Amino acid sequence: MNHVDGTPREGTPPRTDYLQVNDLHVTYRTAGGEIPAVRGASFSLAPGSKLGVAGESGCGKSTIALALLRLLPKTARVTGEVLLDGEDVLTMRWGRLRAVRWAGASIVFQGAMHSLNAVQRIGDQIAEPILLHGSGVTPAELKRRIGALLEQVGLPPARARAYPHELSGGQRQRVMIAMALACEPRLIIADEPTTALDVMIQAQILRLIDSLVGDSGISMLMISHDLSVLADTCDRLAVMYAGRIVEEGPAHQVFADARHPYSAALSAAFPRVGDPSSRRNPHGLAGDPPDPADLPGGCAFRPRCPVAQDRCASVDPVLWPVGPDRAAACVRVLSDDAARAAGVPLEPDAFSGEVSPARPADAPTENAQPEETR
Ligand SMILES: Nc1ncnc2c1ncn2[C@@H]1O[C@H](COP(=O)(O)OP(=O)(O)OP(=O)(O)O)[C@@H](O)[C@H]1O
């Protein structure tokens, strides 16, 4: 078991996570000024585990996905660490980075129609990463591998001769997944893999991803604005707001019993299909996320928060433990003792009366310090 900041607890063996992201910051430089898109994200992914990253449009999810493989535009300034099997992607040489892309980790983007080359046959597109990484592959072996990959994603090998426009949206997304699997990566990053698809096809693609990742030991980072999709697919969830991870923990706990009011609103906005008990707030969340270039002081969620307190105007919360394996960046999760230890002002009526959707922590208080003081 690790501390929330990723350091191992005393007496535990060193961590074996395949992906370890430490204090990732991404700022875009634009003509209109600097846009801090990701503000200090830290998370990790053990081999074979699935982490879902959720949040509204513009909170920085895709920026994280692109940063993991150094695919951001030159206008992005990136700091922090992205350790893939212990090697920092952000500082590795180009030759090594080329080897890591596709084979160490690969990305399935949203909207397969835009990601596939419209004038190239499907088989030739799947062949590209294979040839990039295996110079000695014979034509017969290549054909066999392309056929096997198509079968793996539920398409007949003969579809290798098709062009993207001859396939349905779901089939195209299957091709993207086949490409992502082509070099047998240990991590797949799926950025809104089902967003453009109708509900039935969404479910099929999610089942496919689940079955492919399930027993293979491949780790997966799945990005979606839909918390219920992630809760059904992933082991852990990280909820982002305005460039920060504001809650992290086991998927079913974060979805069913959110500790951050933003996660609670997000899970209520995306109730589980066929589960009326999860339909807690059909009206969704009022207001819009803040402009990242003009964040409010204190907690960035405060202007929309249904349970904001006076102290939220001055405290910029960090991830505080709310259990052995969970954390949330909201002052309401702190007991009075933990708040004192963290230098957070007490709110006289903080834990009296109705506190839904956030609620006070049941966490041990000795770890409740701001991250930067640990
Ligand atoms: N190339 C870029 N140049 C400048 N700003 C950018 C660029 N890409 C993204 N941004 C800004 O960075 C912030 C985060 O964007 P990002 O696309 O990572 O969010 P997201 O959560 O993935 O949203 P969506 O689901 O809409 O893709 C947004 O304010 C966005 O406008």
From TrEMBL:
GO terms for cellular component: plasma membrane. It is a peripheral membrane protein. InterPro entries: AAA+_ATPase, ABC_Ni/Peptide_Import, ABC_transporter-like_ATP-bd, ABC_transporter-like_CS, Oligopep_ABC_C, P-loop_NTPase. GO terms for molecular function: ATP binding; ATP hydrolysis activity. Pfam families: ABC_tran, oligo_HPY. GO terms for biological process: peptide transport. It is found in: Cell membrane. Keywords: ATP-binding, Cell membrane, Membrane, Nucleotide-binding, Transport. Residues 19-267 form the ABC transporter domain. SMART domains: AAA (SM00382). Residues 284-294 have a biased composition (Low complexity). This is ABC transporter ATP-binding protein. It comes from Nocardiopsis gilva YIM 90087.
